[in-house]
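In response to the reviewer comment on reproducibility (Comment 2.3), we provide here a single inverse folding case reported in full, input and output, so that an independent group could reproduce the run without further information from us. The structure tokens appear first.
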């Protein structure tokens, strides 16, 4: 079996494509169809988008650090058991340790802490928008480390998407004199930058195992880090568990940090980071809408205009991908 074929045209000397005559690597996965990738993309966008009011509700009952522990820890248990049942629970090869560490330390532990902390200050709808400025940072990072090129349509789609983010962000309406507000927004922007960096690393890494085989170890690493920090800084958690709170943590852990995270890694392995991140700018659109429904946030004219720009940017990007694919 060969490595999954990227949607975007790969470089002529892609390091992940074995030359003819070489044996195929153990752990390679069969090609993933375009329809499957878009189905996975839909799972990621919807589950991540709906998760913003869920996370905002969670930090009202559990501290950011311990909520992160329960979120990734529950997913770790499920995927460890699944891997063991399949006979695939093996320590990753040394060559895959960098990507395991990258996702565990930065993509999971750091981002969870930053976002959960900021949600105590910034409303969930706005938080989803700021965090998913990821494409803005993925462009220069991918250009520097992967040599990605931007087509005119991708630039148009990216500009429309970022324009929508700016309108939704409403920087002219922020209370810039409030220290907590500034810190909250900076933490969300830092989370966006980390997400962009991780997505580029996922795309550029030479994988020898599948994302599903790597996920239990990534979740385990982030769980250990968050738990250690939580115990050192806060001590044992004092939580009054209710059925609603258990459901909140289960949604975040099993669906978002489990299924959706795995799907996101698969997408980033097969689609260039700029296009993948731009398409997933649909997440803040769903985040804003779900926050209005479940958290009572008001959908203003700026919010409506921003949503239109984001959806348009996503559509332009998808059309650009389809046209580029036909020319291969």
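Designed residues, in position order:
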């Amino acid at each position: 079996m060969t490595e999954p074929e990227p949607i975007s045209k790969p470089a002529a000397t892609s390091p992940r494509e074995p030359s003819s005559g070489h044996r195929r690597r153990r752990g390679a996965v069969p090609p993933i169809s375009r329809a499957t990738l878009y189905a996975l993309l839909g799972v990621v966008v919807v589950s991540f988008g709906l998760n913003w009011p869920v996370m905002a509700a969670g930090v009202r009952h559990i501290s950011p650090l311990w909520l992160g522990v329960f979120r990734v820890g529950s997913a770790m248990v499920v995927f460890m058991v699944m891997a063991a049942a399949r006979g695939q629970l093996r320590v990753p090869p040394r060559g895959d340790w960098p990507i395991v560490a990258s996702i565990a330390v930065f993509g999971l532990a750091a981002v969870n802490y930053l976002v959960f902390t900021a949600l105590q200050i910034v409303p969930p709808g706005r938080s989803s928008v700021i965090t998913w400025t990821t494409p803005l940072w993925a462009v220069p990072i991918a250009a520097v480390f992967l040599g990605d090129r931007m087509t005119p349509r991708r630039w148009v789609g990216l500009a429309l998407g970022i324009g929508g983010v700016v309108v939704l962000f409403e920087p002219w309406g922020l209370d810039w004199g409030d220290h907590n507000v500034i810190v909250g927004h900076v933490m969300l922007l830092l989370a966006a930058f980390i997400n962009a960096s991780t997505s580029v690393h996922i795309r550029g890494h030479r994988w020898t195992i599948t994302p599903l085989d790597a996920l239990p170890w990534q979740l385990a690493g982030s769980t250990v880090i968050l738990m250690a920090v939580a115990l050192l800084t806060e001590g044992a958690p004092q939580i009054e568990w209710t059925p609603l709170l258990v459901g909140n943590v289960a949604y975040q852990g099993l669906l978002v940090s489990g299924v959706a995270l795995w799907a996101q890694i698969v997408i980033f392995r097969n689609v260039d980071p700029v296009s993948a991140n731009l398409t997933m700018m649909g997440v803040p659109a769903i985040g804003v809408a779900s926050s209005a429904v479940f958290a009572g946030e008001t959908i203003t004219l700026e919010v409506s205009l921003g949503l239109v720009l984001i959806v348009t940017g996503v559509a332009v990007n998808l059309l650009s991908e389809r046209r580029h694919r036909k020319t291969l």
